[in-house]
Fold:
Amino acid sequence: MKIIITQEEAVQKGVWNDVMNMFGVQNEDETYPQEQFILTEEQAKQLKLIS
Structure:
Protein backbone atom coordinates (compact mmCIF):
# COMPACT_ATOMS: atom_id res chain seq x y z
CA MET A 1 0.00 0.00 0.00
CA LYS A 2 1.17 3.52 -0.79
CA ILE A 3 0.09 6.60 1.15
CA ILE A 4 0.15 10.03 -0.48
CA ILE A 5 0.57 13.09 1.72
CA THR A 6 0.96 16.69 0.62
CA GLN A 7 3.41 19.13 2.18
CA GLU A 8 0.47 21.05 3.63
CA GLU A 9 -1.06 17.92 5.22
CA ALA A 10 2.32 16.93 6.67
CA VAL A 11 2.67 20.36 8.28
CA GLN A 12 -0.88 20.19 9.68
CA LYS A 13 -0.24 16.73 11.15
CA GLY A 14 3.11 17.79 12.61
CA VAL A 15 5.19 15.32 10.60
CA TRP A 16 6.73 17.64 8.01
CA ASN A 17 10.23 17.49 9.52
CA ASP A 18 10.12 13.68 9.43
CA VAL A 19 8.87 13.69 5.82
CA MET A 20 11.66 16.11 4.92
CA ASN A 21 14.22 13.70 6.38
CA MET A 22 12.70 10.69 4.62
CA PHE A 23 12.87 12.39 1.22
CA GLY A 24 16.07 14.40 1.64
CA VAL A 25 14.31 17.77 1.49
CA GLN A 26 16.33 20.62 2.97
CA ASN A 27 14.96 23.80 4.58
CA GLU A 28 16.30 25.88 1.70
CA ASP A 29 14.58 23.68 -0.92
CA GLU A 30 11.48 25.16 -2.49
CA THR A 31 8.35 23.15 -1.75
CA TYR A 32 4.71 23.81 -2.48
CA PRO A 33 1.69 23.21 -0.21
CA GLN A 34 0.16 20.75 -2.73
CA GLU A 35 3.45 18.93 -3.46
CA GLN A 36 2.85 15.22 -2.95
CA PHE A 37 5.06 12.67 -1.23
CA ILE A 38 4.40 8.96 -1.59
CA LEU A 39 5.00 6.99 1.59
CA THR A 40 5.21 3.24 1.95
CA GLU A 41 2.90 1.60 4.44
CA GLU A 42 5.85 1.18 6.82
CA GLN A 43 6.78 4.88 6.57
CA ALA A 44 3.18 5.89 7.23
CA LYS A 45 3.15 3.65 10.32
CA GLN A 46 6.42 5.17 11.55
CA LEU A 47 4.81 8.61 11.29
CA LYS A 48 1.69 7.28 13.06
CA LEU A 49 -0.50 8.29 10.12
CA ILE A 50 -1.97 4.79 10.04
CA SER A 51 -2.02 1.92 12.49
